[in-house]
Specification:
The chain has 200 residues and is an alpha/beta fold. Helices cover 37% and strands 18% of the residues.
Length: 200
């Protein structure tokens, strides 16, 4: 996800998102690169929202994904008569031995989507990522119209400053919460029967 400003700078961020076929949107995890930080650390901004700040250029690594799985995925509450089954794409960190060992140790069944199939059978990619990003842009435009040209948001060179990362986190959370539950359910139905590769 990228937000551009009039000065040509970009505010880049990476998100970890998860949904269920019953329409539940799990708390997202937002990753923003902050080179000024000497050490990686976790910073919880909202009760239902997680923000990770780290210096590494590889945004989603094993540490980040394991944290999210242990904090969110593995604590997901489901009815006793239902089975939790995790479906992931083939992003390189998903295939790491430590991640798969964590899932096996936790006795959580999981599947990796066939290579090249994400754009066709991954509900987030097919149905939800675009409206989510559109929603974030709406919040940015509203901020720009109301606050973007205020003196404190203008650099000495006359350009618009980048929005603060905490504000970006708020936009992501609100845009994520704005996504309709019915659309989440529809995303699974719309992708149809998923052809997967059972990774062992």
């Amino acid at each position: 996800m990228t937000i551009k400003t009039t000065c040509g700078n970009k505010l880049n961020a990476t998100m970890i998102l998860a949904i269920t076929n019953t329409g539940i949107k799990l708390p997202p995890l937002l990753i923003v690169k902050t080179p000024s930080c000497k050490n990686s650390y976790l910073d919880s901004l909202f009760e239902e929202y997680l923000l990770l700040r780290q210096t590494s250029s590889e945004f989603i690594n094993e540490f980040v994904l394991k944290y999210y799985m242990e904090r969110i995925i593995l604590h997901l509450s489901i009815p006793e008569d239902e089975q939790l089954y995790l479906v992931m794409d083939r992003y390189r960190v998903h295939t790491k031995a430590s991640i798969q060992q964590l899932l096996k140790t936790s006795q959580l069944p999981f599947t990796l989507i066939l290579a090249g199939g994400t754009a066709f059978v991954q509900p987030l990619d097919v149905f939800l990522n675009k409206p989510l990003k559109d929603g974030i842009r709406v919040y940015f435009k509203e901020w720009f119209r109301e606050y973007g040209q205020q003196e404190e948001n203008i650099t000495d060179s006359g350009y618009i400053r980048l929005p603060h990362r905490d504000l970006l986190a708020k936009w992501v959370l609100e845009a994520w919460n704005d996504l309709d539950k019915d659309l989440v359910i529809k995303s699974f139905k719309g992708c149809g029967k998923i052809c997967v590769f059972f990774y062992d």
